[in-house]
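Hi R.,

Here's the chain you asked about this morning:
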Amino acid sequence: MFDDGYQEVPAGLEELPVGAGLAAVLERIDPLRVSPYDTVRLVAAQHRQLAHQQACFHVAAREASLADPAAPGGRAELDVPAAGDELRAVLAASRTAVGRVLDLAEAAERHPRLGAAWQAGRVDEQRVAILVRRTAPLSQEHASEVIERLVDEAGSLTLSRLIDKVEALAKALDPEWAEKLYRRHRRQRRVRARCTEAGTVNISAMDLPLPGGVTTTRRIHALAARAQAAGHPGLIDTIRADTFLAVWDPAHAGASEEEIVAAVLAAALPDDPQPRRTPDPADAPPEDPPSTPSRRRRSTRQSRFELRVGLATLLRIDDRPARLPGWGVVPAGTARELAAAYGDAEWRVAVTDESGALIAALITRHRPSEATTTPQEPPIEGAPRPVVELHVPEAALDALRPGDFPGWARLLTDLQHQLACWRTARAEDRAAREAEQRAAEQRAAEERAAKEWAAEQRAAEDQTAEDRASELSPASECSAADAPGNPTAGLSPFGQTIGPDAAAWERIAARRRRRAREAVARFPSAALRRWITMRDRSCVFPPCGASALEAEIDHTLSVLERGLTVGSNLGPACGHDHDLKDQGWQLDQPRPGWFRWTSPTGHTYDRPPRPVVDDLPAAHPPAVRSSAEPHQYADDGPLWENDPYPRTPARAPAPETPPPTGRPPPPDDPDPPPF
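And here is the predicted structure, written out as tokens:
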């Protein structure tokens, strides 16, 4: 089918507006006959056109729901129930499905910018659904503000990042509603079990308190990781399921963690799925395997606790929401509770400028008086330490007075001292660079002046001997460099420079030596790694949202290609995206924190720097409160959703009888009790 070569795809396809014109162009293109480069262009154009058609479908469905032959113009002002039922018939859909279609159509009409972006193909149905349904509990005022803020960038965000941004904006606008939402849902915590059609069991714990839920799941994952390291051959998901059962099995009540790990190893089945990886000869078991399981080099990625919260939130200056990567956006009260519980974690501080970009990455050993420094969980061999990351603008940190926050005074004093040291080092480095630049410019000027003077001297030597003798003076017995007229006379070989003093030069030299050693090292230091993870926030592949703490610190230009271990050549990449460079992708870093990926087909994708702190609006409660009602409620019903032993149906109440005056005598039963 490629005998005649690739089919030509029109230039400017990306700029062609959606609609009948683009549809006609796409209809003439055979995806099987275009070049690899053009297939990607074709996908992008088809996606825009598909979003446009989805918008047109919803508009038509909305009009069909208002169709009323008896109304003027055939269109009713309100929904016509019969028309909705006709949509059920024509679409072969349930009332719920039709209701969802009409909800999106009404929202597109209610929010004109959202409807226009959908019609233009800039957002698709999935993203419209997220914007509409995730803002449904909000007041009309706040829902409109969230949608207006996100509609322009929604098309460039993954679904999970879009959800994250919606939640952050909603909880920032109304912190009181966010706290109420959390409390009301926490009240409905419950456990449900359901038998599947295959005969297996699904057990779900819902609406648990976040701190307890995080601790429980991390413990299950940690025990599963230990079982995997001890030799369990299955997938980590399978091991976690076996760990869950082992922890709650009554037979293991009071068991130690070592005994639970042993029970998990014993629960492994021969037909359990195993990781899809190429066997490594180094993994081959020895001829005589030991009687006890040996530790294997293969391990799974640890689930690292990471809380990102504003220092002002912990100081109760504001109530902005925090982030728990991998979990979502949490209200301020829960963030304070988590920070106080994880006083044993590594506390990092990201100092930012006005735009939210990182300018200093600090770490402190001090803790507020309210924090618990006792570890929240037993230490796990090889497990990374939890991280609490505070972020604060530089000006805000300077303005804080430690004495106003008694429980935080030592921590705030330490941070202000570290920031002052950071500024001093930065100012010294800048002054050194400027002094060296001035010295280089002055040396260049001296060299030019010396060359000009030497040229003049050579010209004078061409005169007659008699003329030269008459022109000699005592000064000519001095060196040429000190002769009158030499513009460099009296200067040191390095010129006159104004820069740091001797002590500062020693500090600068020490920092340069340390950076030089680190630049040629294979792995970054802890401080450089901390800077990279705090600067880049997540994996640097554009759509990836894996936390930088869970990723590998990758060299943009590899060490084998003489790439240096410096901030401008490093970035976090998750395990999957780290391997893309071995599969034909090329990665560049035009400037620190800006990553550019080039695919095997030749397309480039930029990943600009991400701010440490999101641009969230100031809190302002709406005139009409947002809804905080839970979607489901706890009850006194059975644990099973499809209970195989339903309760006896209620019967008519029995006639009232006077209560017995005493306990009735036991029946005459000569048999011994069964237990």
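One quick note: Confidence is low (pLDDT under 50) at residues 278-300, 468-498, 649-657, 659-675.

Cheers,
M.
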